[in-house]
Amino acid sequence: MQAHQAEDLDTAERLYREVLELRVAQPDALHYLGVLCHQRGRSDEGVELIRTALQVTPKHPDAHNNLGNIHKECGRLREAEACYRKALECGPQHYNALSNLAVVLEAQERPQEAFEAYEKLLRQAPRYAQGHYLLGLFLRNHAQGIEHIEQSVDCFRQAYALEPRFVQALEALSVSLYVLGRTDEAVQVYRDWLAREPDNPIPRHMLAACGGAEAPQRAGDAYVRDIFDRFADSFDEQLLQNLDYRAPQVLADALGTVLPPPATTLDVLDAGCGTGLCAPLLRPHARRLAGVDLSGGMVEKARQRGGYDALDVAELTAYLQGQADAWDVVLSADTLVYFGELGPVLAAAHAALRPGGWLAFSLEAEAGDEDGVTLTASGRYRHSRTHALRALERAGFGDIRIAEDSLRKEFGQPVRSWVVLARRGGDAMPASGRLAT
């Protein structure tokens, strides 16, 4: 267990198996080896190991909770719900199981039941900072009026008061204040934070996002790396809470209108792969599927999920610049929202594609017909259609298709987005699948 906690998974797995050679049904070894197998991308094996442990100790709430976590992270929400309810039967004060139950109820579009679970959690554990934070996110994600945003402010303040190192709560507080039009308060939160941690890239970037400093041309590497490394463990869970998150599927569907039928013949790059949500959607087309992301924590989650032939940790523009004529398809889901000026990264993507290759990406939509880019209080950029179109044309792309859609909700409202396809000039993709070169 010490090796496991230290993330020395090779040693931990070897020692768990040695324990099981000495005692075949040792329940803790079965349980934690099951958790480890899931971490290493062998989720089915992990499920069976934990189920075996529960045959020995059927009233073990932690094992039921961890079994639920595997089901949740594999998208089996009903099974996860049943596990969390069983954990609460065995341990009514199991706060993690109760908060996990609230998350999967929310993900199943059962907001009233989720709200009741969050309320119960805070009645049982009023000093549980994570509970206040999760309720704040819930209120903001499902806001039906300004009062819900105001209530989220109170939740985030309470979470931070209970745990002063809980910087996610501080960041969430500032976003809610900004949404309420209390910009001066939001700016002051970031200034105070930056005064305490002058080298922290997060308050520096978010201060600019709230209008307290000049906006950079793109989010800095340190900011993006820190944000996503910090959220790697809960990233998919946060996406589950944004019930209408659809970017991977929408982009894959858009590519399906221009690519030949799936035949595992194309070289495909998932540019900004995150935890690997796009992998199963791209795999049917891919002879070779690679992913790249700036966050090492995200890449590790993608490695555990599986489906890629190669994964790299790198800044996207620099990575693409070293990949001349390497890819038939480049897909980038919700990654270019961290770039203001799109010109350099699109030029690099154009050079990385083979002639006739396709680029697919999503952006958050800026209103108006001008060539506009805005850094928003979320820390992400919005782009006008004109800006995207001109940047693609300058990069050399043709056959540009920009459609409006909503890829997720934020603050209870759909986020206007652009779904973009563009093609590098050259020979057309043959019906057999592989691009001619």
Question: Please, could you describe this protein's structure?
Answer:
The chain has helices at residues 2-5, 9-22, 27-39, 43-56, 61-73, 77-90, 95-107, 111-124, 129-141, 146-162, 167-179, 183-196, 201-209, 221-231, 235-241, 247-256, 279-282, 296-305, 316-321, 343-352, 385-395, and strands at 266-271, 286-293, 310-313, 327-332, 353-366, 373-375, 381-384, 397-410, 413-424. By secondary structure, the protein is α/β, with parallel strands linked by helices. Among the domains are: 127-214, Tetratricopeptide repeat domain (Serine Threonine Protein Phosphatase 5, Tetratricopeptide repeat); 235-424, Rossmann fold (3-Layer(aba) Sandwich), CATH 3.40.50. Strands 1, 2, 3, 4, 5, 6, 7, 8 and 9 form a 9-stranded mixed beta sheet that branches. The relative contact order is 0.08. Mean pLDDT is 91; it is low at 431-437. Pfam families: Methyltransf_11, TPR_12, TPR_16. It comes from Rhodanobacter lycopersici. TPR repeats lie at residues 27-60, 61-94. InterPro entries: Methyltransf_11 (IPR013216), OGT (IPR037919), SAM-dependent_MTases_sf (IPR029063), TPR-like_helical_dom_sf (IPR011990), TPR_rpt (IPR019734).
List keywords for this structure.
437 residues, alpha/beta, Serine Threonine Protein Phosphatase 5, Tetratricopeptide repeat, Rossmann fold, nine-stranded mixed β-sheet, 21 helices, disordered C terminus
